[in-house]
């Protein structure tokens, strides 16, 4: 029996699927359910390896879909046993899918990474913390190191807020992480109305000019991966693995 690979849930069950080929060069199929649909393609296996070609093929399909419809992108690797299993997923999660599609309709995800110099991070004073140091010297060195790290993190948070705040005013929703690595000052994602994309990108350019010591990397538009949190459970009794959208 042929399995089905699931790419996305969309809000236009009547719309033709793109000509973009799916995994294994298979044609895309639309499986409608009331006001939503699942976009799938036939698959000769029940498990897909996360090889680079497969990952890019999955992403290309989702991006082709978002050109003319609202999309809930499914995380890579969701394989269901049959069309009836796909329909069971759509029926079970219909209300959640409809609400999530309303949330992302006419919006795209824009990503932002802001880099700063590695030397911004306080250096560990290994000499002060060597085994030959007295207990008091060791404790004082630890306290000073922790104070410097705390000051460094506070500075990073304040600086990230300075340029994250004006960008949130151009977005419907946003997420952010400060200091994911010492070099990566800010990692953020913004859910932006399509007609505000140009204004958002202009704001990033203005911030880059205002903070010449930092490097701003804006990417997208992407499918709204960072803003969709519904979970789809396979309707196959033999394999109870999770797939996420």
In words, what does this structure look like?
With 245 residues, this protein is of the alpha+beta class. It contains 5 helices and 11 strands; from the N terminus they run βββαββααβαββαβββ. The chain folds into 2 domains: 106 residues, no CATH class; 85 residues, Ribosomal protein S10 (Alpha-Beta Plaits, 2-Layer Sandwich), CATH 3.30.70.600. Strands 1, 2, 3, 4 and 5 form a 5-stranded antiparallel sheet that branches. A 4-stranded antiparallel sheet has the order 7-8-6-9. A two-stranded antiparallel sheet has the order 10-11. A hairpin with a 2-residue loop joins β2 and β3. The radius of gyration is 23 Å and the shape is elongated.
Please name the defining characteristics of this protein.
245 residues, alpha+beta, Alpha-Beta Plaits, 5-stranded antiparallel beta sheet, 4-stranded antiparallel beta sheet, 11 strands, 27% strand, elongated
The total beta strand count reads 11
Structural class: alpha+beta
Oligomeric status: single chain
Shape: elongated
Distance between the termini: 25 Å
Helix proportion range:
25-40%
The description of the largest β-sheet is:
5 strands, antiparallel
Write the layout of secondary structure elements.
Layout: E1 3-10, E2 29-33, E3 36-43, H1 52-65, E4 71-73, E5 79-80, H2 83-92, H3 94-104, E6 107-115, H4 135-168, E7 173-178, E8 184-193, H5 197-210, E9 215-222, E10 231-233, E11 242-244
Antiparallel strand pairs: 1-3, 1-4, 1-5, 2-3, 6-8, 6-9, 7-8, 10-11
């Amino acid at each position: 029996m042929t399995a089905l690979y699931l790419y996305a849930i969309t809000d236009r069950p009547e719309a033709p699927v793109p000509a973009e080929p799916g995994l294994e060069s298979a044609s895309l199929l639309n499986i409608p359910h009331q006001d939503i649909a699942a976009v799938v393609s036939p698959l000769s296996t029940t498990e897909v390896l996360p090889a680079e070609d497969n990952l890019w093929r999955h992403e290309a399909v989702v991006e082709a879909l978002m050109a003319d419809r609202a999309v809930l992108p499914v995380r890579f690797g969701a394989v269901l046993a049959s069309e009836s299993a796909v329909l069971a997923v759509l029926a079970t999660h219909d209300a959640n899918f409809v609400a999530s599609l309303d949330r992302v309709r006419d919006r795209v995800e824009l990503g932002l990474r802001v880099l700063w110099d590695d030397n911004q991070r306080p250096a560990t004073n290994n000499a002060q913390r060597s085994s030959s140091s007295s207990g008091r010297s060791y404790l004082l060195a630890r306290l000073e190191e922790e104070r410097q790290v705390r000051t460094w993190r506070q500075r990073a948070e304040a600086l990230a807020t300075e340029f994250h705040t004006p960008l949130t005013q151009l977005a419907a929703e946003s997420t952010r992480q400060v200091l994911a690595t010492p070099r990566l000052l800010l990692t953020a994602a913004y859910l932006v109305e399509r007609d505000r994309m140009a204004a958002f990108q202009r704001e990033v350019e203005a911030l880059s000019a205002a903070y010449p010591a930092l490097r701003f990397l804006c990417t997208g538009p992407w499918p709204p991966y960072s803003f969709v949190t519904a979970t789809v459970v396979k309707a196959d009794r033999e394999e109870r693995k999770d797939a996420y959208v």
